[in-house]
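Following the same procedure, the fold was encoded as tokens, giving this record:
***
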Amino acid sequence: MALTFTSASGTAPWVLRAEQAPALRGGPSAATGRTPPAASSSDPSVLAAATGAFAAAAATAAATTARRRQRRCGQGRRAGAVGMRAAEASTLPQVDRDTTKDFRRKLQRSDQYFKFGKTQMESAMEELRNVSGSDLVTKLRTNGFRLTVGDVTFVLAESYGFCWGVERAVAMAYEARNFFPDKNIWVTNEIIHNPLVNENLTQMGMKFVEAMPDGSKDYSGVSKGDVVILPAFGASIDEMAFLKERDVQIVDTTCPWVSKVWTSVEKSKDKGHTSIIHGKIEHEETVATKSFAKKYLVLKNMDEAEWVAQYILGNGTREEFMDKFGGVMSEGFDPDVDLEKVGVANQTTMLKGETELVGKLFERVMIKKYGPQEIDNHFVSFNTICDATQERQDAMYKMFGAEYEAPGSALYTDLEGEQAGITLKSTKNQEKLSSKSMEDEIRGAAEASSDDAPQRVDLCMVVGGFNSSNTKQLLEIANQENVPGYHIDCAERMGRKGSANSIEFKPVSTAPADAMMDKGLEVKEGFLPEGKVTVGLTSGASTPDSVLGEVMKKILEIKGESV
């Protein structure tokens, strides 16, 4: 028996077979030793019901494929996530910030916290690669990241697309539907920042918790016994407490590298240090991370970090500080007290070079104020950097024949000169979590890029969700290097709002929320020049290879070339 779900492109992103779904067979899973709910091979009615539910979802997906091909780009899923009723923010319990570590540990050890077995996860990851991959992208990758078809030469950035944490989260979400075929399944946020992946989950019968403009959420539809998936970005400790009280089954797809940041914040808190979080206050990951801190301050860039550093050194007034950072600090934050001891953590999608400099800057500041002999009492350094974002950006610069320039800080340079000979804690043990090594293991190591690969490309296609921060940063690099860049979320953006050789794209200046509703997009006619053309390709960390492959095929179609 095979049950097929049709993707937005008309292909099957996930095929469920009876031998892969213990929930349809009955008895415990060989991978987990647990008996799936409502499963009995001796009860034909149960099997028929499960099969019928899956078949109905597949039929619905197939019947709407043509319509969805026309609208799947944009028109975000949030518009109808909880039906026609007006969404209302749910009141969440407030977990004592001194007890977050114990609370999360107990939750993870409870029966509510579902764990997939190693064999089950390996199988799910392999299935996902089979359906999210692209033969064309694989050929491009194994050909030294360069492939010529007729007049079109594609040059692929050497680091691109799905990172390991994202791939793991999507595989777990798909496997949750296999394991809980008869359950209501909710996702507390977009599983990742990719509209097609999230839409596929909707076609599999999953629902998304509605989010309000202020970031609060409407959990009113979630009932006891439902299954709730925590996305790759994680969820706040208060959301976890709410789900525990609601008595749901929790499937936690949080990226392990995000969880490592939380552990670092807990250690900082245990030492009585304030967590300085390098991130964006509105980003789902930072929302989750700050919930584990008792005292925190979120800084989005070096300018803000330097301002705070200067304040610690006695420059600026308290009123100025509160006016500038009032919306990005913990309740009751007192800069004159809470900045005496600090630890630096980060949102994993921030630039590696900038996060490293933020950490070194605050260590230098504490050395200047308290002396090197007291640094252990005033500063704590953690290795919480995931290099996936930086790897993708470095690959973009390499494709353009340029190099990444790490950010600078005049204040840091001055302090470094004053403290010559002092070795920083934050420069020790700087071995990073290697995203690329994990990706090479999954995809297979690629051939080295061709020696004669072009140092410039005529244009660059940047593929990824319009609300993807790391994808936007890739587009900014193209703009910086004066290469025409087009940020699109799927191949259907080409030839949709004009001639066949037209493209509808998101400029850097358009807000993600607007772009996801098809607002603020621009159209470029004749974006592919006549004759020979070299097209640069890259994709954000939440973009499957299948989407990038569709973009390549569409370009070849426009140029009259066969695949």
